[in-house]
Amino acid sequence: MATAAPQQTARDQAYAQGDAGDTAAYERAFDAAVAADERIEPRDWMPDAYRATLVRQIAQHAHSEIIGMQPEANWITRAPSLRRKAILMAKVQDEAGHGLYLYGAAETLGTGRDELLDKLHSGRQKYSSIFNYPTLTWADVGAIGWLVDGAAITNQVPLCRCSYGPYARAMVRICKEESFHQRQGYELLLALGRGTPEQHAMAQDAVDRWWWPSLMMFGPPDDASQHSAQSMAWKIKRHSNDELRQRFVDICVPQAETLGLTLPDPDLRWNEERGHYDFGPIDWTEFREVLKGNGPCNEQRITQRRRAHEEGAWVREAAAAYAAKPTAETGATRA
Amino acid sequence: MTTTVPTTAALALGDDALVLSHRLGEWAGHAPVLEEEVALANIALDLLGQARVLLSLVGDEDELAYLREERAFRNLQLVEQPNGDFAHTIARQLYFSAYQHLLYGQLAAEDGPFAPLAAKAVKEVAYHRDHAEQWTLRLGDGTDASHERMQRAAGALWRFTGEMFQPVDGLDVDWAALDEAWSERVGDVLRRATLTVPEGPRTGAWTAGAGRQGLHTEPFGRILAEMQHLHRSHPGASW
Prior knowledge:
The complex is a heterodimer. Chain A is 62% helix and 2% strand. By secondary structure, chain A is mainly alpha-helical. Chain A has a two-stranded antiparallel sheet. The radius of gyration of chain A is 23 Å and the shape is globular. Chain A starts with 9 loop residues before the first helix and ends in an 11-residue tail after the last helix. By secondary structure, chain B is an all-alpha fold. Helix content of chain B is 64%, strand content 0%. In chain B, α5 (86-109) packs across α7 and α5 (86-109) packs antiparallel against α8 (175-192). The radius of gyration of chain B is 17 Å and the shape is globular. At the A-B interface, α4, α5, α8, α13 and α14 of A face α1, α2, α3, α6 and α7 of B.
């Protein structure tokens, strides 16, 4: 019986052209695979810098999910209806789950969750600057859903096609849930926007405070973005920071109109020639200060995270000790 | 024929679930390990779902949750106890989930107004009980430090357990048998966890059925102050 010839990948062809084992051949194979939109998998050879960039990006993404639980969890016990409380609890639970997927994806690159958490706690790895802003009213929960999750989705949907397989697959799952959260946040703001004058004012105030920080989530402008060119060449990133930021603004303006809310930017207007909205300058000084640790909640967020970890140490030690003990039934250890 | 919903019973069961869910919600962002962020939020959500069904049998869920004062709540004193350390939270979960599982098991088997809710809830509660029992074993039979904390937590909450078996109007349950089955199950888990079953009193002049009568412990008022503040600040608003 004839068998079909196995499909030859771009990577196989590149290996065939050189000696396997020689780094140049590996590099050619890697470049060919990326060029052909093949996925890089954990056991494939990859450049050290590609591995390091991915670890940095995925870890930062994972850390953002778990630090990002804090500003929203701040309102779980005060949610104004049981339905909203259930939605918010489910969302915060999803974020912990996203953190788990992402630490799992990072671990395929040869690092460990403990090591990454240690880097977060010691400030050697970052999380998204947006979570250093406080949630001062209930409407902030809606603004986070609409704007922060909206910006995250705009950034993350292209990552579903990222060249690194485990990250791309984690993003497919995460983006589905994030879109759901984003719609719920929008719906929360819609209820406030159409509610009492006090509720409307609360919604407007929240949007005023979250709009600019959300635009900063796309990172520095293209001419100042140090990782962008290489990440795009490796197909980790698919679009530039400014392209994604523009896409987000174009989506948000009509949504704000439906909400009956304004965006806090006097320069915001439709540009017929470009086919996009023009918008005002971003305060990059504020962005840099928040990144440096001088935002409103940097200290509070990291302190809470460290405290949860340190106060939970005895629990993790107990679980490990219990797992290592032989069971009465078989005499084998549980772990 | 009309079936009347036993209001007292629905409020008792609904308030238990509502208040415990609120306590578990306080853990969000503070759990010892990421998996427990997921687990505790998951249990809190299940309980909140049960509370919403039960309160809706009586009236408007939000009016009942947000506009009643402390003396009108019918939850057990056990579920309003502060989270304390992780061992206290687990001891509270162990005691309550074992009770809830037995109670809902009975209600699901009968043809009463709570049967449909109980049939669904008993599956969730089986998972809650398993979670609490597994952690009781890990903490009790883990390190010396965790053993000591778990023993202290089991002892500290023991005096609130007798209230669970005070009869509730509208629930046709053999309370003495329920108490016996509970004691057996919980005692067995504690012993397997190398812990001593607490021996102190489980009821007292004040605690017997007190929460069910609207007599709560001091921490409870603060739960309501926090939970109800926003809702009460905007009378009549919808969210």
